[in-house]
Write a structure and sequence with these properties.
two-stranded antiparallel ribbon; alpha/beta; 41% helix; 5-stranded mixed sheet; 203 residues; binds zinc ion; 8 helices; elongated
Length: 203
């Protein structure tokens, strides 16, 4: 594409580097920002800078937060005996949107993947184990996609906590996850959390 301005081209390149945005959409957005009367560009720019520099990670569950401890971890209305383990913040948000879960979360920040060189030490597993050692949690719910990496991660965690007197369950499988928790509709995901099953080795 021939651009009438280097600055425009640079903006299009930057916008289209985001996931799911092609050059055409990026160009439409960039042109919109140039001609916009409300100066959305300035609002966007300060919001992006805040996003990058102001966002914190909860010191307990590793969720994204505006404080050192997130709203879910700091409220007294959640059931602290239930801990839901998820791969990422998007999965947590999907479960939270179902309104079916009243416990707390722990965000792993990925899955163990020997093929991609992701080992347990790259994930928030040590902090999970120290949380569980405190004996406040009675049940952990593995809300992890049923993929090879998901199964590896669940198996690894199950081994690590075998000495603790903990109930471990997995959200019901066979429902239409499409392998991606975050794309499950709220009803299906909510139902699968309610209908969770005991985790068995080799499942
Ligand atoms: Zn938290």
């Amino acid at each position: 594409m021939n651009y009438p301005s280097k600055i425009l081209e640079k903006a299009v390149d930057a916008i289209s580097s985001l996931p799911g945005i092609g050059k055409k959409t990026a160009l439409r957005m960039a042109l919109h920002l140039i001609y916009d009367k409300n100066d959305k560009a300035s609002i966007l720019s300060s919001s992006l800078s805040e996003l990058r520099n102001g966002v914190k990670f909860c010191s307990i569950c590793h969720s994204i937060s505006d404080e050192n401890v997130c709203a879910i971890c700091s409220t007294s209305s959640r059931n602290k005996r239930l801990l839901c383990i998820v791969e990422n913040v998007r999965d947590m948000m999907a479960i939270e949107d179902t309104g079916s879960f009243v416990g707390l979360y722990h965000i792993l920040g990925g899955l163990i993947s020997p093929l991609e060189g992701v080992s347990p030490s790259d994930l928030n597993i040590d902090s999970l184990l120290s949380r569980l050692e405190k004996n406040e949690v009675e049940e952990i719910i593995m809300a992890i996609s049923p993929t090879i990496d998901g199964d590896t991660t669940t198996f690894y965690i199950s081994k690590k906590i075998s000495h603790l007197n903990l109930k471990m369950t997995s959200i019901a499988r066979g429902v239409s996850f499409g392998g991606e928790l975050e794309y499950a509709d709220e009803f299906t995901l909510g139902r699968s959390i309610s209908a969770r099953l005991p985790y068995k080795l080799g499942q």
